[in-house]
Amino acid sequence: MELAQVRLLVTDFAACYRFYAEVLGLKPQSGAADGPYEKFSPATGSAGIALQDRAMMAEVLGELGGTATGHRSLVVLRVDALDAYCEQITARGATLLHGPAPMTDRMRTAHLKDPEGNLVELQEWLLLRS
After folding, report:
1. In the β-sheet with 27-28, what is the strand arrangement from edge to edge?
2. Are 11 and 116 in contact (CB under 8 A)?
3. Tens of pLDDT along 74-114?
């Protein structure tokens, strides 16, 4: 078994597409900016994040019709230089909720939300301290 992707069900597909492509800088698979589906990949690694129009999945399952409330997901992205990446994405319109700051002695993090309110955690892994 292999994890193919984490898929987020979104209401405002175009705004979320712009956030993941233009603000976070992830590569869209097909360029389907208006949806109803798109997968995004970082420059390295095999994991991906996908967006799917919430109404499309509601038709398939016969539920999920309303807007999601509360924090229902947390997307985690590992970056090499957290401070520099945060400067880049805030210049492109991101608003940090927290950080960059130490999370543990081995990790620094920053947190933000996408246009649908999904939490995004940016992680910078540190060398083990002696």
Report:
1. 6-10, 49-53, 37-41, 27-28
2. yes
3. 788 889 999 999 999 999 999 999 999 998 888 899 999 99
